[in-house]
Each structure stands twice: as C-alpha cells, then as structure tokens.
Amino acid sequence: MDTLRIYLKLIRISMKARMQYRADFIVGILAIIFINAISIGSISVVVTRFVDLNGWNVWEMVFLYNLYLLGHSIFSLLFWHFTSMESYIIKGTFDQFLVRPLSPLVQLLGREIQYLGFGDVIVAVTGLALAYHKLNLHWDVWQFGYLFLIVISAAMIETAIFWLFACISFWTGRSQSTFWVIWELSTMVQQYPIDLFGKWFRVLVTGIIPVAFMNFYPAIYLLGKTDQYPHYTWILFAAPFVALVLLGLASTVWRFAINRYMSSGN
Amino acid sequence: MRLFWSFARQSFQSRAMYRFDFWMEIISVFFSIYAVYWIWNTLFAQSPGSFEISLAQMTTYAVLGMAMETIFLPWIGPQVYISEQMKHGLLEMDLMKPVDFQFHLFARNAGETFFRFFLLFIPTLLVSAYFFDFKLPATFLDGAYFLVSVFFAYMILFGLNFLMGMISIVTINIESISWAYQGVLRFLSGQVVPLWMFPASIAGVLAVLPFQSIYYVPISLYIGELQGVDAVRAIAIQAVWVVVLMGLGRFVWSRIYSKMMVQGG
Fold first, then answer.
1. pLDDT by residue (tens digit) across A175-191?
2. Whole-complex ipTM
3. What is the pTM of this model?
4. Cβ-based contacts of A21 with chain B (< 8 Å)
5. Can you tell me the distance from the alpha carbon of A186 to that of A107, in angstroms, rounded to the nearest whole number?
6. d(CA B261, CA B91)
7. Which candidate, A86, A259, A264, places its Cα nearest to that of A168?
C-alpha cells in the first residue's frame, strides 16, 4: 500500500513537471488525435479505392486499428517510461534506484505519465464506436466483457514486450533502437490484417513478438469473421493467457537482470 | 566552402552511429519496405486496373518512399538540434560563432545526411533491388531528374525543419508539435500513398503545399510518371519552394534574433 502511495506521489510530481509546458500538453493531445486521423484517413483512401484489402473492408480495418490503440493507450499512459531505460543505464543513474528502499520498477515508472495516451483513448473509443455502428454489430454482454478483457490483455502484452526489451540494456547498455523495430512491427499489426504479410510474418508476430494478440486474433472473433478464418479456433481467445505468460517472463528476466547488474561507472 | 566542409565533417564524425543502432535501423527500414511491398502486391492482385501504373512502378515507388526516410528522418533535422540547445540554454554558444546561423545548421545537417545517404540509403536500395523488385529508372534522364529533385527535396525539408526550429525557440518545447508535423509530412507528402490515389479535392489542396515536393515529386520522376514538360515544371516548383522557405527561415530568424534575450547571460 505504501508502494502505491509513493508511486502516486511520484506520478503527481512528474505530471507537475510536465505541466511546465502547458501549451505543449494541449497541443500534444490535439497532435495525437490529428496524427491518428491522418493515418486512418490514408488507409481509408487506399482501401476505399480497392473496396477491401484481403477481405477486410474499411470499417473492419478501422476497428482493427482502434482495438490496438485502446490497449496501447493504457501502456503508453502508465508504462511508456520503459523506453527511456537505456539512458539510466548509460548515465549510471539507475544506481540511484537501487540504493533507495523502494522497488526500482516503481521508481522507474513513477518518472513519467505519458499524457499523450489520453489522446489515444479519445481516438480509440471514437473509432471503435463508429466502427461498431457502421458495421451493424450487435454484441451481447459477454462480447463487451470480452472486449474489455482484450483491452487489458493488450496493454499487458505491450507492457511486457517493452519491459523485456528494456532489460536488454542491462547487458548491452542500449535498448532504445530495438524499440524502433518493435515500433515498426506494431504499426504493421495495428494497421493491417497480418495474414497480408505472409506466413513468416505471422509466425513472428504470433510466436516471437506476439503483438498480433493485441488486435488481430480477438478482432476476428469480435467482428464475426470466423468464416473467413475457419482454421483459427482457440487462438482467437488466447490473448489473456499470452499476456500472463509474458508478464511472468518479463518480471523474471527483470529480477534476474537486476541481481547481476554491474553499474556502468568504475 | 571550407567552413561548410569542416562543420559537415564534424557532424559526420560525431554522428558515426553505434553499430547496434545502425543494424536496428536497417531492420526497421526493411520491415516497413516489406509491409508496403506486400500491401501493393495484394491490392494489385485484387484489381490490377486501379493502379494507373504498372506493378513494378508501384513497388518501386513504395520502396523508394520508405528508403528515402533514412535520409529525410525527422529526428535528425535542425529543429531537433535547436530545441535541444534551447532546453539546455546552449543556443548562445551558436550565436557566438562568427558564422551565419542558418548556414551553420545546414552544414551540420548536410554532414549527417551525407553519411546516411551512403550508409543507409544506398545499401537499402541495393538490397531492395534483389528482394523487393526495386527497379532502376527506365531512362538515364529519369535518373538525372531524380537526383536533382532529391537535392531540392532535401533543401525544402531543411527549410521547413528550420522553421520548426524557430517555433521551438518561441515555445521551448516542440515535442508534440513535431509529432503532428511528422504525421503531416508522412501522409501529405505522398511518401506512402501516391497523390493520384487521393480524391481530387484533397489532391488539389496538396498540389499547392510544399510537402508533395519532398517525396511525391522525386519518386514520380524516378519511376517516369512525371515526364517532359511536367518534369521540368515540377522541379522548377521545387526550386521556388527552396527559395521561399529558406528566405522565410532567414526572415523569421532575423526577427527572433533581434528580440532574443538569452537567459542567464
């Protein structure tokens, strides 16, 4: 409970620091909405022209995009600071975390709330609602429950992946640039149905960096596209388990890494 | 000119990348190329008639658009340098140099771009020629147009980035404005979706903005979509944008410079 209290206090402090640039805060939220609109818009331009892309129409792709974004927004609000891990290792400032009587993880994550995540939430909820309406979907309570579960799982999956990759910097001193690769991969998965990119890509984003569980597999079920993918069965519902396993793995690696961490100084 | 080379060389050397970062960047470029390659191939298989150009031209367009991002990367522009200097209160160091400010930043950026041109851009194209049907230009003239046009595109991008840098002097933090700026660049420049695929109304607006001169014009010249008079005209418009944007940058800078107070001076 104490940990939680300190975490919230840290968050408040970092929010305050952020609010120094109040104009940037508001512009930032608007910018995020704008970028997403542009990016959905340009997908729509292409897909509308060709009617559908690999059997997915415009609104199904809008759904796919925003399902990812909603999970991602939670990650980006609370766990974004994993992407800055590298600089703590390079500068040796990670040692500060180790000498204080509080979990280094909490100290690291308490450094930043990525407020741009609020923009993601706005876009994602709007996009999902629009798609739901345009696609004439009629879900029962369980399906809405499943949507909720998927969003939480998606956030956990993305968090665990970034957590794992942040751990790389304990060994190599660098991890920032690995995020570019994950970023590129995630963008592909977020924007397009992954079967578009061939079998090996599907293996990569299902089995190795499993971002496909954040939107693609759940969307097949939620959009009722099971006819189009008859050979997928249990995998449509695997996201929560993938999330748990990944989080377990990431926290194990993290603890292992901290135990044998040697600072960059001396 | 000697001054230019010394600044360019300096930034060339300081930016010699970490090997690890280099490989990660190469990998992400290839993912993005792989993605657009498959998207266009799938769409072409669905309805070959809707392209207005051949599949080979379309994939070449897509590959080139992604590969050019290695030299036109938004994270290395002068606006990043300016805003870093502003945040740390170091801009006065740049003011003390007996060199024109815009020229100084241009030389810096040119050095790094030069480096990236040979170490990232060219190798990416070579590999893409093998794996992703990236084709050489059909005629020597198309290739020559492309090279001239890429140079102008670089100058236009520099001009826009420099203006972004001016904004950062006023607002200090430009992180979020630059997110929006990059979104605009990526989608209104024709980097991913060629402009002729946009609805006519949007395409009309884009035609009078400078963004299309950055990606759409050089790439269209490369694949031979713009030819003859159209090609010359497109390059002339680019040249006009270079003059306008560089001039505007100088003007804004001189206004800011005369009013600027450096904190803690």
1. 778 888 898 899 999 99
2. 0.83
3. 0.86
4. 171-173
5. 27
6. 11
7. A86
